[in-house]
Predict the 3D structure of the following.
Amino acid sequence: MASMVLPKIQYTRCKIWKPANYRFTFRHLVTKRRTVCCTNVTPWDPSPVTYAAEQDNTKDVFLTSPTVLFETHDSDQTKTPESLTTDTKRVTKFGYIRWPMWLVGPLVLLATGMVPTLWLPISSIFLGPNIASLLSLTGLDCVFNLGASLFLLMADACSRPNTLAQDPCRSQPPFGYRFWNMIATISGFIFPLAMWFGSQKGVFQPYLPPISFAILMGPYLLLLGIQMLTEMLTWHWESPVWLVTPVVYEPYRVLQLMRGLKLGTELGAPAWTVHMIRGLVCWWVLVLGVQVMRVAWYAGFTAHLHQNESSNEAGEAENSSG
């Protein structure tokens, strides 16, 4: 049951009194809540949430999409046609710049290496068994090293792909090649040093002064160490010029040793020193021949590899068409 109590009501003007606390009793009324639907939503109210009336078959399935919140997009896919045209023009201009490198690189190698050694008279460099002669010969070899470094950089630039879409060319030398190269270089170090230490101990006679040995073999040992460092860097960077680096340095080494034979005559070097330099000349000519054969082998190996790849692609195309 529901009850309602009314308070006492007094009218002051008419002086009418009505009894207070009248109680009206009503039976319990069953009320039903109504839902008011309105399609007009104010701009500041959130949009209504709609629920599907049909039964959802994806029960207990949550986050079916990948869990990666941020997707990565390839820059090649997002490039506009204008940017692709700009990249193509840039690559074409760079290709035009690379064409003169095929002539400039060998000319730099020739001007810094062969010309000073062949046409510069020894009398203008060698002033006697002193420090000035040693520094002059070392500077002459450093000029060649600068030209060789520029040549290798140009060769590495020419070995890069013509288009930006292609992957950069990375070439890693085999372990056997690196092993035998290190053996040849270390042997070129050990043999003259062992001969000189033997002369210091009296094994080889007559005695060769240290300044004379430094003039004869110092630039040779310095450039040999620079070659070893350059080869190790090309191996680490996986540059295709690792195959031509020994071919660049070793012919100049033969010229160095031939120059040492002339200087040995002016210094009055003992006979064992002359025979040592002749032995080194023969050794490096042999190593240079092996390096040239390796270049021929590598060219044949890559040609055979490309032929196998083309045959495999042709076979896959026939299988897919069948």
In short: The CA atoms of residues 16 and 247 lie 131 Å apart.
